[in-house]
Design a protein that fits this description.
The chain is mainly beta. The N and C termini lie far apart (about 50 Å).
Length: about 500
């Protein structure tokens, strides 16, 4: 950043929930779920204490000759604690870094409130302006209309792997179909969760809504037993063996049996939300991953696994869990990954000899017909704060118990942050979704292909999650609509 100007870049992202708005993204916050500038009462701060923060900045910073502004996106939790998610100064000037330091230390934030209840996490934007050798900051509320209009302008893919040559020889073998708000009656293009039920209906979460799709028409499918109020979104979705659909929305778990909706009392089931809902078809179990541990629903009964029952579980903050064919439960938490064997013995990979899972949280998992396991990884204990392409990628656990990690350094992975991995039993390949570089196809030998909005009909480089239908067609939930990939 030149001394004569404090660079301001205005950018809108493409998600009303859990999205960094500005170009410079920081990774010092846990950002699994939050809403954007939401609430009947929006997040803010104690005016008197915030003025003290400004005074401190003015005393400690040399602002001579500097004019301009910078924006910061700040994540505020229900306890009034906060951290900076993103900002607009791509030069990372020392002034910007000092503001970030002070905002992260500031303790007088006020959380957003909806229907009398504090939002677990919400983000707000601040703008700091430098003029006449002084700095002043204030809240800048998000223009939701402009923000939503930006959804139809997908970002260019960010390919961090500069050494691998992507030939994409198999791309011609696929037919890619896209449904969006321009060519169908899809309410909006922001699809973060997807499930396919026994009838072949596709269920999608959309911004502040839930829809079904029969291949021709999208229909509203939202629960009708709770007053949704001014803001209501669905954050997790699954369909179980009995064709019951399960969702998490606004501090409640709901199910739909194709006739009626049921809301579950959190005091009875032990949870009021979930990061993920995962169906385990072979054991007829439904896993709910939350801050209270792993909650299991089977045969009408609810049980909870947490640190009080399993002391070696890394944390109660479970973000993902799934059973494998050996009946082991693999669990990803925000403090590490663990596996529970059939004897209920827990292996915490933070306490074992170094493997690729140490320092990582698994965020999705699939298995092939031979018992090899495939994981997406999240590095929770990051050594370089603010780094984008972290030590993540995917990992394979082979049947002999060994692990191998694949990243931009040792493979054709285009970017290391991955959202979902699926094993394609028909083609014997892995499909991997990313949030910056699109879709990855790996043939499990040496062939990596990368499809995105600049080299294929896939409309975006951000893919939230994926699933297969019973014909083996791959469906992508994206920020630019629903995508179907079928072999020609």
């Amino acid at each position: 950043m030149k001394k004569s100007i404090f660079i301001l870049l205005i950018a809108f992202a493409s998600n009303l929930t859990a999205q960094n708005l500005f170009p410079v993204k920081l990774d010092n916050c846990i950002t699994e779920r939050f809403c954007l500038d939401c609430g009947d009462i929006k997040a803010g701060y104690d005016e008197t204490e915030f003025l003290k923060l400004q005074d401190k900045l003015n005393k400690e910073l040399n602002l001579q000759g500097i004019k301009g502004a910078v924006k910061f996106q700040v994540l505020v939790d229900a306890k009034g604690l906060a951290c900076v998610l993103s900002h607009t100064d791509q030069s990372n000037n020392p002034i910007t870094l000092k503001i970030i330091e002070e905002l992260n230390k500031f303790k007088k934030w006020t959380p957003a409130v909806t229907s009398g209840k504090k939002e677990e996490k919400s983000s707000m934007n601040l703008i700091f302006v430098i003029n006449d050798n002084k700095i002043s900051g204030q809240i800048e509320r998000v223009d939701m209309t402009a923000f939503k209009n930006s959804f139809d302008n997908p970002r260019s893919p960010e390919i961090f792997n500069k050494s691998y040559v992507y030939k994409n020889e198999n791309l011609k073998n696929y037919k890619i179909t896209v449904w969006n708000s321009n060519n169908s009656n899809l309410p909006n293009n922001m699809n973060d969760n997807i499930a396919i039920d026994k009838s072949g209906f596709i269920w999608l979460t959309v911004d502040e809504g839930l829809v079904t799709f029969d291949g021709k028409e999208f229909k509203n499918a939202e629960q009708n037993i709770t007053d949704k109020g001014k803001y209501f979104a669905y954050y997790a979705l699954a369909s179980d063996n009995n064709d019951v659909k399960w969702v998490y929305g606004k501090n409640n778990i709901y199910s739909f049996d194709n006739t009626k909706w049921t809301k579950y009392d959190s005091t009875e089931i032990g949870i009021d939300g979930a990061y993920e809902i995962i169906n385990n078809p072979k054991t007829n179990e439904l896993f709910f991953c939350s801050d209270e541990g792993l909650t299991i629903y089977k045969d009408g009964k609810w049980t909870n696994l947490n640190k009080s029952k399993l002391k070696d579980l890394p944390s109660n903050r479970v973000t993902f869990a799934k059973r494998d064919s050996k009946n082991r439960i693999w669990i990803g938490t925000f403090s590490g990954t663990a596996v529970i064997d059939e004897s209920n013995q827990v292996t915490n990979f933070e306490n074992t000899k170094k493997t690729v899972l140490k320092g990582k949280c698994i965020t999705s998992m699939d298995e092939d017909e031979n018992g090899n396991l495939y994981f997406t990884l999240y590095e929770f204990d990051r050594k370089e704060k603010g780094k984008v392409n972290n030590d993540e990628g995917i990992a394979i656990r082979y049947t002999d118990g060994t692990f191998k990690q694949f990243t931009t350094d040792n493979s054709g992975m285009p970017f290391n942050h991955t959202n979902c991995v699926l094993y394609d039993k028909n083609e014997k390949v892995l499909w991997i979704s990313t949030d910056r570089a699109g879709l990855v196809r790996y043939n499990l030998k040496d062939g990596w292909e990368n499809y995105h909005n600049e080299n294929s009909d896939i409309p975006t480089s951000y893919i939230s999650t994926m699933t297969f239908d019973d014909k083996g067609n791959l469906y992508l939930a994206t920020r630019q609509g629903l995508v179907k990939i079928e072999r020609k």
